């Protein structure tokens, strides 16, 4: 308020009346704009983050991304393919109707029916075969095959109000969308807030695309009520502008401040930061598709060097992960030994990040038949992950040191992903965030032999294939018992690492910055959630 | 006259059609939106469904045909990202950009003309030279840098103005504008100033040259001889004459400001069309990019057409030359 008064003088003195309310307002600078208010529209982090304020799901993720009960009070595996969800009683939607099993079934029915969805949430419920409600507070879900990570996946699917959407009384679930529903709720009716009715800690007050989203506290919330009467979410996609907005006092809280500004923010006593290790691994991947040199590989006498395990090990040994984390990541990273940080489910406790060993790397290259190394082009995005372009530069230098003369081919993310998915690189740097924060997710996507129809190796365009690992992974995927499954996953992970199938570099650390007097329970899934922003005890 | 206008209309239509082809092919060439839109763990069935829904499975000439056909019906397609009408999305962002451009234009005139006239009247003094040197600086500063400096100084250091975004708006004729809500002004000042800086330098130079020329003209001398006060000479006789080129240039620059406020909007996270364009490019939202570029093309072609026709009315020689050639 101070600056407005300075400029406008008494003309806006009337605005001062707004001050008491502003004290309970939280203003947030987001790094990406959600594409819709419709919670089933787009399977994208900014959208999930936004909807979690207003719409809840059967389960939620805790700060370490492990499933916790939310609208379901308990989840129980009746047998390997049957799950029983006991629903929370006394939960009300913001329009006053009570939450029951009918809302759950209606919500799951709607997911496949969203028009123009850029990326469907069906991905998170494809294991479901049937859904029934023996009574209003119980939902029985059966899966087509044993599917242990169901509870975690369902944290993605928001429950909307069946009554507000005009659903019929009796609904029966069908995987393709239920029968008996005449008109499915339209995305625009969420965007204009007509149907944006949830059970969460906040309700929508306004949605102005490109500018701001305003939330108000849901005073009838069943859980702990947030301290904020009002939350304004402003997408500020430029990192520098976001930091400026925080420093200028326009916003109280921002996500993803750029690394180069972190020291400045941390040194300033008016601001504070929160950090959380994320499940996003930055890794190097190889192109195994051909006998002949893949794109960008030269001087190998017509061979694909990556098919030789010794070459892959040499590359891993050439990389100084600690140096990358310390100097390029400015400390907001953790050197990686696997595709997920320990102690998440399916990781190996004792495994340590590889230490650089130049002599051994050169020796391995010579043994593999490349005593003079070879030429290599490393493909990388330069605006997707934290300092991705610089990391690639450093890796190019480290590899050149062992004789692999490496150039980098850096480009904007949209071009990079399109080219990577067409396997146009021989060797590339990329990142992967495990939505479910357990090992089956990265193994399936990145390391399993590509089998598009089974959803295996969806992001393994280089065609890495390790049948023994595949077998272990498939077995693990059917085991509902957590301890046994995670032990198998840990073994599978170890197999990929021992084979140097792909080279883990580091995990990103997510950072939030905010004005002094606030605290934030940093989330591993990188979400910014207003209800988890608290006033620090001292300043209350 | 009619022949001339028809010829010009024909030429304009040709330019728009040629640009439609170029824009479509250009945007088509910049990567596959599926890789950005789709969750990375989607399986092949989901990928195929999404590709088919966006019409990306068809060969490019079919896609182009569909695009043209829809275009003729005023339909630019639906945004891949937001799932809403691309044209509507752009139009919803237009008021924010328009008010930014108009305020910038006002600043340009209010700052540029007086400074230019002062510099012209006192071209041998320190004030005159300072203004003219300043205008060179205004020409040479990159737009985004100036914006960032403003933010650093007025928002971060002094905390007088907000660093970005749009303030509270008021509704005027159904449009959401911050111009009519005093609380919205602080947000408007810095981006408008950033947008105005280059044009202001331009106007200073025009006004300066005009003033120096006019001061030597007979009508100014005569006015002086009549004993009119200097303020009346400058305020009425001089200003009237030098404003003609200034207004012409400002009219043309308004179009440029609306179409290319992109960088300024990005730096100040101003929710206008320009920011939408950049965000759409990042997400490869083809219909929005294409619609935006087509709107810009049509806008410039229209402005040029109107200017040409006006000139031909004012100066019939233009028409004759065109027919001879």
UniProtKB/TrEMBL annotation, chain B:
<feature type="domain" description="ABC transmembrane type-1">
    <location>
        <begin position="94"/>
        <end position="307"/>
    </location>
</feature>
<feature type="transmembrane region" description="Helical">
    <location>
        <begin position="242"/>
        <end position="263"/>
    </location>
</feature>
<feature type="transmembrane region" description="Helical">
    <location>
        <begin position="142"/>
        <end position="161"/>
    </location>
</feature>
<comment type="similarity">
    <text>Belongs to the binding-protein-dependent transport system permease family.</text>
</comment>
<dbReference type="InterPro" id="IPR000515">
    <property type="entry name" value="MetI-like"/>
</dbReference>
<keyword id="KW-1133">Transmembrane helix</keyword>
<keyword id="KW-0812">Transmembrane</keyword>
<dbReference type="GO" id="GO:0005886">
    <property type="term" value="C:plasma membrane"/>
</dbReference>
<keyword id="KW-1003">Cell membrane</keyword>
<feature type="transmembrane region" description="Helical">
    <location>
        <begin position="12"/>
        <end position="31"/>
    </location>
</feature>
<dbReference type="InterPro" id="IPR035906">
    <property type="entry name" value="MetI-like_sf"/>
</dbReference>
<dbReference type="GO" id="GO:0055085">
    <property type="term" value="P:transmembrane transport"/>
</dbReference>
<feature type="transmembrane region" description="Helical">
    <location>
        <begin position="100"/>
        <end position="121"/>
    </location>
</feature>
<dbReference type="Pfam" id="PF19300">
    <property type="entry name" value="BPD_transp_1_N"/>
</dbReference>
<protein>
    <submittedName>
        <fullName>ABC transporter permease</fullName>
    </submittedName>
</protein>
<feature type="transmembrane region" description="Helical">
    <location>
        <begin position="289"/>
        <end position="311"/>
    </location>
</feature>
<keyword id="KW-0472">Membrane</keyword>
<dbReference type="Pfam" id="PF00528">
    <property type="entry name" value="BPD_transp_1"/>
</dbReference>
<dbReference type="InterPro" id="IPR045621">
    <property type="entry name" value="BPD_transp_1_N"/>
</dbReference>
<feature type="transmembrane region" description="Helical">
    <location>
        <begin position="188"/>
        <end position="208"/>
    </location>
</feature>
<keyword id="KW-0813">Transport</keyword>
């Amino acid at each position: 308020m101070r600056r407005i008064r300075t400029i406008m003088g008494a003309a806006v003195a009337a605005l001062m009346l707004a001050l008491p309310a502003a004290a309970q307002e939280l203003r947030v600078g987001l790094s990406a704009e959600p594409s819709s208010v419709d919670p089933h529209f787009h399977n994208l982090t900014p959208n999930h983050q936004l909807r979690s304020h207003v719409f809840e799901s059967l389960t939620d993720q805790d700060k370490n991304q492990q499933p916790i009960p939310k609208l379901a009070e308990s989840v129980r595996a009746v047998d390997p393919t049957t799950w029983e969800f006991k629903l929370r009683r006394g939960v009300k939607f913001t329009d006053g109707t009570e939450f029951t099993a009918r809302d759950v079934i209606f919500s799951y029915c709607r997911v496949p029916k969203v028009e123009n969805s850029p990326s469907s949430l069906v991905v998170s419920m494809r294991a479901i075969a049937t859904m029934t409600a023996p009574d209003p507070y119980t939902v029985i879900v059966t899966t087509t095959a044993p599917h242990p990570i169901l509870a975690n996946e369902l944290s993605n699917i928001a429950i909307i109000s069946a009554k507000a959407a005009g659903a019929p009384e009796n609904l029966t679930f069908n995987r393709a969308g239920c029968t008996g529903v005449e008109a499915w709720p339209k995305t625009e009716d969420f965007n204009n807030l007509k149907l944006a009715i949830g059970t969460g800690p906040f309700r929508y007050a306004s949605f102005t695309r490109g500018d701001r989203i305003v939330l108000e506290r849901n005073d009838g919330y069943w859980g702990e009520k947030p301290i904020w009467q009002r939350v304004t979410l402003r997408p500020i996609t430029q990192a520098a502008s976001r930091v400026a907005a925080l420093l200028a006092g326009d916003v109280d809280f921002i996500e993803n401040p750029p690394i180069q500004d972190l020291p400045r923010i941390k040194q300033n006593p008016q601001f504070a930061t929160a950090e959380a290790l994320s499940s996003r691994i930055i890794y190097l991947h190889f192109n195994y598709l051909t006998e002949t040199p893949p794109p960008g590989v030269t001087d190998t006498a017509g061979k694909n060097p990556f098919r030789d395990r010794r070459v892959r090990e040499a590359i891993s040994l050439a990389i100084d992960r600690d140096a990358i984390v310390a100097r390029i990541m400015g400390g907001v990273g953790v050197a990686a030994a696997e595709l997920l940080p320990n102690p998440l489910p399916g990781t190996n406790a004792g495994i340590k990040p590889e230490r650089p060993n130049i002599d051994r790397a050169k020796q391995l290259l010579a043994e593999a038949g490349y005593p003079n190394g070879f030429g290599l082009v490393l493909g990388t995005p330069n605006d997707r992950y934290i300092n991705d372009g610089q990391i690639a530069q450093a890796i190019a230098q480290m590899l050149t040191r062992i004789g692999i003369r490496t150039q980098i081919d850096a480009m904007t993310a949209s071009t990079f992903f399109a080219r990577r998915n067409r396997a146009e690189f021989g060797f590339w740097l990329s990142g992967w965030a495990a939505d479910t924060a357990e090992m089956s997710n990265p193994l399936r996507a990145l390391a399993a032999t590509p089998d598009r129809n089974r959803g295996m190796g969806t992001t393994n365009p280089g065609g890495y294939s390790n049948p023994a690992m595949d077998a272990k992974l498939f077995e693990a995927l059917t085991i509902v018992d957590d301890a046994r499954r995670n032990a198998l996953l840990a073994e599978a992970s170890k197999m990929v690492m021992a084979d140097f199938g792909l080279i883990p570099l580091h995990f990103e650390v997510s950072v939030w910055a905010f004005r002094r007097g606030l605290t934030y329970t940093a989330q591993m899934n990188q979400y910014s959630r207003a209800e988890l922003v608290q006033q620090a005890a001292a300043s209350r | 006259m009619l022949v001339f206008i028809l010829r010009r209309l024909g030429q304009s239509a040709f330019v728009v059609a040629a640009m439609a082809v170029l824009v479509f092919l250009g945007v088509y060439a910049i990567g596959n939106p599926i890789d950005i839109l789709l969750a990375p763990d989607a399986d092949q069935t989901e990928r195929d469904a999404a590709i088919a829904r966006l019409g990306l499975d068809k060969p490019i000439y079919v896609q182009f045909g569909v695009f043209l056909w829809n275009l003729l019906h005023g339909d630019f397609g639906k945004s891949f990202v937001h799932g809403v009408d691309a044209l509507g999305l752009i139009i919803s962002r237009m008021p924010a950009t328009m008010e930014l451009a108009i305020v910038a234009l006002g600043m340009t005139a209010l700052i540029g003309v007086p400074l230019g006239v002062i510099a012209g009247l006192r071209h041998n003094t320190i004030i005159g030279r300072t203004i003219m040197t300043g205008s060179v600086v205004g020409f040479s500063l990159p737009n985004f840098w100036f914006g960032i400096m403003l933010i650093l100084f007025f928002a971060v250091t002094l905390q007088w103005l907000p660093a970005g975004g749009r303030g509270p708006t008021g509704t005027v004729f159904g449009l959401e504008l911050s111009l009519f809500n005093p609380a919205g002004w602080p947000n408007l000042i810095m981006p408008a100033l950033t947008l105005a800086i280059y044009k202001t330098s331009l106007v200073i130079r025009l006004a300066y040259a005009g003033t120096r020329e006019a001061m030597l003209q007979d009508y100014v001398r005569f006015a002086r001889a009549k004993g009119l006060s200097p303020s009346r000479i400058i305020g009425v006789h001089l200003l009237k004459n030098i404003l003609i080129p200034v207004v012409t240039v400002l009219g043309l620059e308004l179009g440029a400001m609306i179409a290319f406020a992109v960088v300024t909007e990005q730096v100040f996270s101003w929710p206008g069309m320009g920011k939408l364009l950049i965000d759409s490019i990042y997400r490869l939202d083809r219909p929005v990019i294409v619609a935006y570029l087509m709107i810009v093309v049509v806008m410039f072609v229209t402005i040029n057409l109107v200017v040409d026709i006006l000139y031909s009315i004012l100066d019939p020689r233009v028409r004759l030359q065109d027919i001879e050639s």
